[in-house]
């Protein structure tokens, strides 16, 4: 592992001053400037795809396929998409108003919120830093990036690449941990975009409140999977196992646990075994050729292993642990709601299966928690879909697949309740960093309608100005 150079607090000050000056200069406002930076960002990812794969391999042992698909391509595509749609997104909008105000030039301008701060986690260090940045650049916000210190090679690479490709007057990287992030959080920002765990999310929101900085919190949590009577169990098992094995389970939208109706458990277990043996034909997933990544560090490894050691469930497949680096994908059956594996977000390659009587019991168990980032449900039954839609809450609701919502970038992605607030991707990213500034221009001719608002007040003027108080409210 490379040693990561933390940014000095003096440099943090200089960066902040420099970016504030750039924002006030208006440098980042022209569409042509923003477009150029977005194209440069796409170029940065294309020209350094191999270095990015290598850095992720060093820090996480992540297979290059997963880096290329989930991170490099994702950033390139979203930067190019934003460059293409930037002009349309930033266009001022004329607002239709009541006839008597129609000559007032009622316009909403899309203005950048100010200098933005993006704080990202370690599990997908590139896309979770640069996808929000696409929105910030598109909106015209200079931005400080604060990558996670837990993946030092990736964070160091980010710090070396950004100044080579992007305008250093407007975009900068601050590396470090709590001290450096706290120094950043002491300052007011146009917007803070945070991706990480709920515990730190609360710290970020509390600090931001002190400077009245708006915040997006992209958090995690336990995202459940619902198996319904009416579904293809083989397909469900394959798609769940696919989602669970991405980045060795260290994914915010990883299927955390599965609820299976009691009478389907035996068939579902068989389906899981079939999917598992197709994905991992070697004797163990820890075989050197299985393209199986690490748990990020010994402390996370011991946390995940600890959950597994304490479970009262039974291991169906997997269970092997390799030093303090890897844990094989492991499916555990017969897990009860009070099991160790249900205590917290697993964020590792372990998949507990819980037996339930029926959908009502599943919904009750899901609703006992807060709003997960996503609820997955394998069903072809419209009534089940309706029930889940109306009786549960979550950031997203995905039927018949897992993790694929990340690819549907036209839709907003974000949490709800304990899984966070705010959303992004494509235009939603642009909107996140944009202030909708309403503007009107009231012509002198409007004076003809303003008589009643001026002093001296009278009962007649009062009656004229308060018609809504006496108007009839429609019957229900
Ligand atoms: P984390 O909350 O520990 O760290 C995230 C960032 O916060 C890092 O940059 C870190 O340096 C910074 N940080 C840590 N302590 C801080 C403090 N006291 N004050 C200020 N900043 C601090 O998260 P993590 O462990 O890197 O990531 C895992 C979590 O992130 C999981 O819960 C996962 O579900 C969630 N996550 C969510 C999404 C999403 O899109 N919703 C994506 C990825 C990960």
From TrEMBL:
GO terms for cellular component: cytoplasm. SUPFAM superfamilies: ALDH-like (SSF53720). It holds the Pfam family Aldedh. Keywords: NAD, Oxidoreductase. GO terms for molecular function: aldehyde dehydrogenase (NAD+) activity. InterPro entries: Ald_DH/histidinol_DH, Ald_DH_C, Ald_DH_CS_GLU, Ald_DH_N, Aldehyde_DH_dom, Aldehyde_DH_NAD(P). Residues 3-436 form the Aldehyde dehydrogenase domain. Belongs to the aldehyde dehydrogenase family. This is Aldehyde dehydrogenase. The lineage of its organism: Eukaryota, Fungi, Dikarya, Basidiomycota, Agaricomycotina.
């Amino acid at each position: 592992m490379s040693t990561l150079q933390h940014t000095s607090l003096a440099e943090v000050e200089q960066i902040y001053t420099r970016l504030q000056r750039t924002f006030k200069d208006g440098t980042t406002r022209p569409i042509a400037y923003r477009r150029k930076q977005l194209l440069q960002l796409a170029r940065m990812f294309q020209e350094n795809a191999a270095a990015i794969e290598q850095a992720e391999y060093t820090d996480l042992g992540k297979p290059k396929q997963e880096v290329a698909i989930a991170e490099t391509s994702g950033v390139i595509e979203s930067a190019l998409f934003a460059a293409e749609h930037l002009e349309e997104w930033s266009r001022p909008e004329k607002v239709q108003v009541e006839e008597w105000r129609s000559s007032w030039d009622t316009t909403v301008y899309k203005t950048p919120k100010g200098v933005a701060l993006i704080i990202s986690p370690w599990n997908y260090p590139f896309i979770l830093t640069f996808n929000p940045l696409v929105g910030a650049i598109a909106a015209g916000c200079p931005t400080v990036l604060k990558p996670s210190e837990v993946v030092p090679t990736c964070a160091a690479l980010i710090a070396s690449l950004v100044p080579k490709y992007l305008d250093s007057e407007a975009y900068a990287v601050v590396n470090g941990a709590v001290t450096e992030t706290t120094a950043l959080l002491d300052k007011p920002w146009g917007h803070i975009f945070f991706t990480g765990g709920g515990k730190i999310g609360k710290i970020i929101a509390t600090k931001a409140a002190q400077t009245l900085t708006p915040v997006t919190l992209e958090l995690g949590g336990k995202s459940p999977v619902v198996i319904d009577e009416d579904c293809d169990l083989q397909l469900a098992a394959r798609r769940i196992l696919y989602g669970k094995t991405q980045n060795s389970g260290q994914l915010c939208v990883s299927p955390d646990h599965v609820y299976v109706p009691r009478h389907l458990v035996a068939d579902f277990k068989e389906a899981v075994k079939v999917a598992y043996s197709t994905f991992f034909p070697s004797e163990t997933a820890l075989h050197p050729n299985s393209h199986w990544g690490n748990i990020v560090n010994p402390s996370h490894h011991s946390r995940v292993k600890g959950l597994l050691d304490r479970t009262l469930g039974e291991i169906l497949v997997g269970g092997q642990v390799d030093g303090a680096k890897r844990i094989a994908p492991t499916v555990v059956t017969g897990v009860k709601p009070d099991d160790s594996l249900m205590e917290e977000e697993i964020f590792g390659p372990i998949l507990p299966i819980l037996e339930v009587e029926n959908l009502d019991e599943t919904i009750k168990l899901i609703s006992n928690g807060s709003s997960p980032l996503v609820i997955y449900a394998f069903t072809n039954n419209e009534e089940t879909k309706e029930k889940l839609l109306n009786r549960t809450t979550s950031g997203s609701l995905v039927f018949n697949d897992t993790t694929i919502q990340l690819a549907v970038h036209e839709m907003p992605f974000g949490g709800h309740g304990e899984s966070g607030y705010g959303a992004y991707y494509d235009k939603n990213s642009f909107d996140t960093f944009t202030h909708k500034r309403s503007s009107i221009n009231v012509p002198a001719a409007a004076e003809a309608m303003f008589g009643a608002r001026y002093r001296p007040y009278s009962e007649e003027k009062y009656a004229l100005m308060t018609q809504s108080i006496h108007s009839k409210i429609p019957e229900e």
